[in-house]
Amino acid sequence: MRSPNQTYIPAIDHLRGLAVLLIIYYHGLHIFSYSERFQRPFSFENWLQTDNFFLSALIEGHTAVAFFMVLSGFIFTYGSLDKTVDYKGFVVNRLLRTYPLFILLLFTGIYAFPDSFQWDRFLLTLFALGNIQGGMDLHSFSSMFWAIAVEWQFYLLFPLLLKILQKEGVGAILGLIAVFLLMRALALFEGANIRDLSYWTIIGRMDQFLLGMLIGAMHVRGVLSEKALKMLFPVVFLMVCLILHLFHKAGGWPDISAFKLIWPTIEGAGWAIFILSYIQFAQLIPSRLSQVLVAIGVISYSLYLIHFTVITICLKEGWLPFAEGSPVANALANTTLVVLPVVFVVSAFTYRFIEKPFLNMRIKYHRD
User: Fold this and answer.
1) 18-22 CB contacts, 8 Å cutoff, 24+ apart
2) Which phi-psi region, left, alpha or beta, contains residue 192 (left: φ > 0; alpha: ψ -120 to 50)?
C-alpha cells in the first residue's frame, strides 16, 4: 500500500499479508475445531494442545495482533524519523485509513442487532475505547474492534513519542518500555488479571508499538548489516516459532500466570527481529509470489475486519465440507478452501469501494 508520506517498500505489504493470514487461520482453526470437538460455540476452555512445533505457533496465532502492532510502530517511524509530523494531518490520515470501513461495520452491526444499541456503548466504541468494558457487542461485526481501539490509542500518541525519540534517542524508548513493564507489575500486585491487561489494553501493547519504533529507527540508520539480516531470516523464523512453542507449552493464551507481565515485550521483540530480517530477505522472494503477498497486504485491513463474520456465518450455516477425521485438519481445510475465497472476494469489494476512495484523499503530514 503506497502512502504520500513514505517510500514504498513491498516487503511491508508482504508482512501485512502474512499477519492477516495468520489471524484468519488462528480463528478458523479454533472456532471450527472446537465446534467439531464439543458441538458447542467456542470458548477458551479446552484450549488446543500439541507437541507439534509449527502447529503450536498457529494455535497461538493471536500473536498476529502483536505482529501488526510492532509493524505499525515500524512503519510510522521509518517514514517520519527525520521529519516533523503535523499532528492534525497525521490524525486526519489515520481517520481516512481506518474509519470508513470501521464505520460501515459499526452501523451494519447496529442495524443488524438494534437491541445492542446504547448511547454510552456507541460513544465508547466510536471514540477508540471499544477495548474496555462497556464497548458495543455487535456479534461478529465488532469482534475486531478492540484491536482497532488499541491502535488508535497509539496513533494519538505517536507524534509525541516520535518527538521524544528524535530529541532523546533510543534510550528514552527503552525507558518507556521499562515504565510500562513497571505499570503492569503494579497492576499485577494490585490483583489485576495480568493476561487480560497485557493482551487487550494499551498498557500491555505499548511495548510492541515502541519496539516497532525502535526497529524503525534502526532500519533508517542502517545499524544492522542488511546482508546478515537477509541470510539469518530462516533462523529468525524458527526463533519466533520456538518462542511461540514455549509459550504454548507454558499454558498458552488461557494461562493467567505472572509471566504474562513480560510476555508482550518478549513477543514484540521476536516480531521486531522478524520484521527487520524479513524486509531484507524479501528481496529473494520470486516476483510472482511477491505480487500475491502484496495484493493480500493491500486488502489486509478489510480481511482483518471482515474475516470473523465470514467464519461465523460458515459455522452457523454448516458450510464446512470437511468433517471427517481430524478436527484440526478439517478446520484448516475449511479455512483454506471455504473461508479464504469468500473473505478475499468480500474484502476486494470493500477495499475498492470503501477503503480506496478515502485512501486517495490522504494528505502529506510532514512539515519541511
Assistant:
1) 18/67, 18/293, 19/64, 19/67, 19/68, 19/71, 19/300, 20/64, 20/296, 20/297, 20/300, 20/303, 20/304, 20/307, 21/296, 22/58, 22/61, 22/63, 22/64, 22/67
2) beta
Whether pTM > 0.85 for this model: the answer is: yes
Distance CA 116, CA 139 (A): 9
Spatial contact of 60 and 244, defined as CB atoms under 8 Å apart: yes
CB-side neighbour CA atoms (13 Å) of 114: 1
How many Cβ atoms sit within 10 Å of the Cβ of residue 44?
Answer: 10
Cα-Cα-Cα-Cα dihedral sign, residues 274, 275, 281, 287:
positive
The helix or strand, by DSSP H or E, that contains position 132, with its residue range, turns out to be none
Q: HSE (CB half, 13 Å, CA atoms) of 354? A: 21
Q: What are the pLDDT digits (tens) for 99-147?
A: 999 999 999 999 999 999 999 999 999 999 999 888 999 999 999 999 9
Reported as a single tens digit per residue, the pLDDT across 37-88 is: 999 999 998 999 999 999 999 999 999 999 999 999 999 999 999 999 999 9
244 touches 213 (CB < 8 A): no
Neighbouring residues of 157: CB distance < 8 A, sequence distance ≥ 6: none
